[in-house]
Amino acid sequence: MDLKIKWPNDILMSGKKVCGILTELTWLGDKVEKIIIGIGINTSTEAVPHPELITYPASSLEDYFGYKVDRLDLLRKIILEILFLQKKIGSGWFINTLEGFQAFRNELVEVWEDG
After folding, report:
1. If we measure between CA atoms, which residue out of 49, 77, 48 comes closest to residue 64?
2. Is the pTM here over 0.85, yes or no?
3. Cα 96 from Cα 100, distance rounded (Å)
4. CA-closest candidate to residue 18, choices 2, 29, 31
5. Which DSSP helix (H) or strand (E) runs through 31?
6. What's the confidence (pLDDT) of residue 44?
7. Do 20 and 6 touch, CB atoms closer than 8 A?
8. Per-residue pLDDT tens over the stretch 38-86
């Protein structure tokens, strides 16, 4: 499975956006007190906006796997992964793992401002 993180918050599968993640932190001094995570996942084909309405190619887990995804099972797996990763945040392993998933790493990218 070709998973990549498109900075700052998109998850790509085979070069198409299937997920967006937003986080918010609250701090207590120099320590993170809480992390709030919002995750939107295109699980079904119907969840993908029409190509004319988006600026980046998108897809769904259903399109990728070829079958409907059990949302409850997916949620269960995401929660278990978050619980595992929670203990690793900030570690060298965590940072190196994230680096390995960066989309467009060592590629020239163009940034422009609308307006």
Report:
1. 48
2. no
3. 6
4. 2
5. strand 31-41
6. 96
7. no
8. 999 999 999 998 989 998 899 999 999 999 999 999 999 999 999 999 8
